[in-house]
Each structure stands twice: as structure tokens, then as C-alpha cells.
Request: fold
Amino acid sequence: MSDTGRIKKPLPDRLRHALWGRVITQDAIPSLRVQTMIDRAHVAMLARQGILDREMAALLLDEIEALEKAGFPGVVGEEPVRGQYLLYESALVERAGSEVAGNLHRGRSRNDLSATALRLTLRIPLTRVQQRLHKLISILVRRAAELRAAPIPLYTHLRPAVEGTVGHYFCAVAMALTRDADALMNLWRDLDTSPLGAGAVGGTSLPIDCTYTAMLLGFNAPINNSIDAVASRDSILRLLSDLAILSVTLGRLATDLLIWSSEEFGFVSLPDHLVGSSSALPQKRNPFLLEHVQARSASAAGAFMAAVTAMTCKPFSNSVAVGTEAVRHVWNPLVDVTQTIEIAQAVVAGASFNMHAIERRLAETTVSAAELADHLAARGIMPFREAHHRVGILVSEAEEQDRPLANVVADWASTQGFDIDPCAFAPGALVSARDFGGGPGARSIERQIDILERHLARLRGALHEILHRHRSAWRQLNAEVTSLRTRSKRSAAEVART
Reply:
């Protein structure tokens, strides 16, 4: 349909191709199925409200179903002269006639339709990200339990700081990721309100029932303001922001594992199926998957900046810059983050830790320095700041003499008349006492694992409830449509008999 009544000529070919492509491809079928889902709910509501004759509604529903089952002929493979939706509507008019299909768009606009389709289309990829993230957290918690007592130096500024455990580290990453999971769960409060019925921007005078269509489409409720319904895409910004923050955490995890897997550290080893070889260097075992995680962690951040820039200073109404151009940046990050999480799952699950290399490195470090200073202060030997200064001097002496710090401290203590057991500060002996402040002590790790497991169970339960509601709505929509079509056919048969 190139003549709209108001506009007589379509866009030039090169501009149409830039906006919508040359033809509608098979890739558009998922979005067309979302369209038919919305149409079925809308038609059922129009008939229920008496806005559309029931027999006409049933005929329209028949044609919508037939068009979908046939693979959308008249849409797929065709050139979108004025966009995909009008091509789809034209295909229905060709099948059912304008007397029937021409009523489909009553009480709505492409503006509220697009906003509704966006929210429905986001459901599957968002759910996929959440499910993968929950699994990654579960793997991290399992590995934390397995390695709760495995010592490892904890670094600040890439320098050995204190002694911790691998389980302690994995709990830390898992806790950061649960906050990301919480943020993604909170998005459903935005996405579970329906814009359908808001029209172009000002609602409609037709007595539509937005609550009914919201229920049939699995939303919690309709949006209360028609301008907000079509103008707002802030949920997209929140989604991209949350994905960007999640990606930062994944990238930092990848960086640590990449450093620890280097030959200079040798703390971590990955199995053959998680490393790559070199085309020229036969000795190489490259942890290239971790580099993919690092690089893809930029995808969501870049998309967020593109989307927020596209929306900035645009009028608060329907806007192509907001509803189309800004939104198109959301899809690739959803795929990238999902795949990045899957890579992280495989690496965390498959990583093994070389305890011999770790213990050797611990023996070379002065990670017991902080504990020694605390010990001197706790025993009342000297104030903490003085103890801190004294231990710093002793660290320098240990390095100069190439001796373990605990032994140098013990020699110094004996000259001062203090009794300090160097074995109490040997590598591996410091972790067990650090049960406070979220440290790596045994009781502390038990608490952390318990907190994570309960948090993860709540997240999974909340997502399950949302998905159950969506599935129930789909069944209800099918039941309502089937009932309407059945009643209409029964009425037609009764008329024929009389």
C-alpha cells in the first residue's frame, strides 16, 4: 500500500532499503508471531467490548491464524514499502478483505503496538540471560564449597596483600553477580506493564479494556498514562546499564583467571577443550576464551552509550529516535552477554588450581605482615600504628636477608623479650582465624555460601513465578480466542438452520 490517502508516493528505493531492507526475510518471523499474539488479544478485547462484531472478529482471527500457519505469505519475501507492520496489515486485507481486516487497527496505533511488541520480544532473551546467570552463580558457589580451604594470595594493585582462599574469591564474584541478577529481576516491574491501548499518544475514545488485553498478554497491568506508554524506553536504558555492569564483573573475573593461568603465576590450568593452540608455536596452550569474555564485556557498555545518546534531549512523546533507533542497540548485547556467561560457566567449572605453585608463591610473599601487626597490637605490645611501622621495617629486613618474614619477626621479638611463634604466621595458618569482616575463615565461608544459596533460590523462584504467569496467559489467550471463534461458528450455524 503506497497510497495512504494523505501521502501519495513511497520513499525512494535507496531510503526504504536503508530503513527496512530490500525484502522481509525469514528472520522477521519471530517478530511477526509477536504481532499475531498482540492482534489476537486485541481482537478478542474488541469483540468482548462490543466494538467489533463477534462474527467479524472470528473471521479476522481465522485469517490471522491462517496467515501465521502459512509462514506469512505476502509479508516474508516482499518489499516493505511503508514498513513491516503496514505490509502485514495489507496481507491480511488481501486475505480477508477490508471489511474484516480493515477493523484490526481500531483503538490502537503503531506507537503503542511497537512499545508492546518490544516488551514481549524482550521476554525470551532476558529470561535466557537470567537463567544462564543463575547457573553461573550456582557453579561459582559449588566451586567455592569445593575450594573453601584452598589457600591463595589475595592481591591489591597486583601485589600480594593477604592470604585468602579460592573459595573466598569465588564467593566474592558470586555475590557481585547476585546483585546483577537482582537488577535484572527488577526490570520485570517495567516490562510487565502493557502500553497497548495508549494509541498514538493520547489514548482513545473507544471503550477499550486495557486491563483485559494486558492479562491476555501476560502483563501485570496496563500503563496508566498514554504519553508515558509510547514515549518511554527507560527500561531499555536500565537493561543495557544492568548488562554493562554485569559484563564488567565478568570481565574482571576473566582478567584474574587470565593472570593466574599465565606461566609467571601458574595458579590456574584449563583442560584441553577450553584452550587453543598456536598455528606456529607448538608449545602454546592459549586461554583464548577468557580473552573473548574480556572483549565482549564492552558490548553492553557501548550499546548503553549509543542508546542513551540517541534518547538524550528528545521530546517526551513518540519518537523514532527513541523508540526505533535507540532500541535497536539492545539486541546484540543480549546475545553477547548470554554467550559470555556461558563461556564463564565452562571456564569456572573446568578450571583446576595448582596448589603446589600457589603454596610456593605464598611462601615467597610477605602476606603475613598485616596479621603480624594486628597480633602485636592485640597483645598490647605496641599500638597498631607503631606495630605497622615496625613490621614494615622487618619486611624490608626479610627481603634483604632473603628469609621468611615470620622468622625475622621471631628473632626481633626474642631480642625484645616477646614470645612470638613463627609457625602461627606461616602460609596456610592465617586463614582459619579470619572469620570476621567477611574474611576467608571457615565459619565465614559457611555463612557466605549459605547466603548465596538462599539468595539464588529466591531469584530462581521469582523468575519461575513470572514465567508461569506468562505461560498461563498464553493458555488463557488461546482459550479466549478459541471460545470466541467457536461461539461465532455456532451462531452462524444456528442462523443457517433457521
Notes: The beta strands are 151-156, 159-165, 193-194, 221-222, 268-269, 352-353. Residues 119-203+224-356 form a domain with the Fumarase C; Chain A, domain 2 fold (CATH 1.20.200.10).
